[in-house]
Amino acid sequence: KLQAYGGGLVQAGGSLNLSCVASRSIFSINVMGWYRQSPGNQRELVAAISSTGNSNYADFVKGRFTISRFKVNAKSTVYLQMNSLKPEDTALYYCRVDLDRAGYYYWGQGTEVTVSS
């Protein structure tokens, strides 16, 4: 349903761009977002963007990460441009889409981001 791409290993200060593509079977998408989870910690919101383009960011990524969304080949796609990466950004990053119908959502598989010091 959701396919995420773009994780990898990068040095501190570097950049990565994550993308997540929703299959055409998912429609009436309201919010698209990125979450992350590091070992021993709960999954936390990184950034989200609504269908009208309103975005919100966790304080720990403000000014460094940018979320965007587009239709690519009729598939809703969400991107997360991550700049000035820090070792503490190391985590599994998950995309999630929330549908217009309240309480309905999908998770993508995690994509691993590792930032070395």
Question: Any descriptors?
Answer:
7-stranded mixed β-sheet; 4-stranded antiparallel β-sheet; mainly beta; 117 residues; 0% helix
Write up this protein.
This protein has strands at 2-5, 8-11, 16-22, 29-37, 44-49, 55-57, 65-72, 75-82, 91-99, 105-107, 111-116. With 117 residues, the protein is mainly beta. It is globular and about 40 Å long. The termini are far apart. The model has no long low-confidence stretch (mean pLDDT 95).
Quaternary structure of the protein: single chain
Largest sheet at a glance?
7 strands, mixed
Number of extended strands: 11
- What are the low-pLDDT stretches, counting only 5+ consecutive residues below 50? none
Given the structure, what is the number of helices? 0
> Approximately how much helix is present in the residues?
under 10%
Topology pattern, helix = H, strand = E = EEEEEEEEEEE
**Class by alpha and beta content:** mainly beta
Gap from first CA to last CA: 34 Å
Which term fits the overall shape? globular
Average pLDDT works out at 95
Radius of gyration: 14 Å
List the helices and strands and how they pair.
Elements: E1 2-5, E2 8-11, E3 16-22, E4 29-37, E5 44-49, E6 55-57, E7 65-72, E8 75-82, E9 91-99, E10 105-107, E11 111-116
Parallel strand pairs: 2-11
Antiparallel strand pairs: 1-3, 3-8, 4-5, 4-9, 5-6, 7-8, 9-10, 9-11
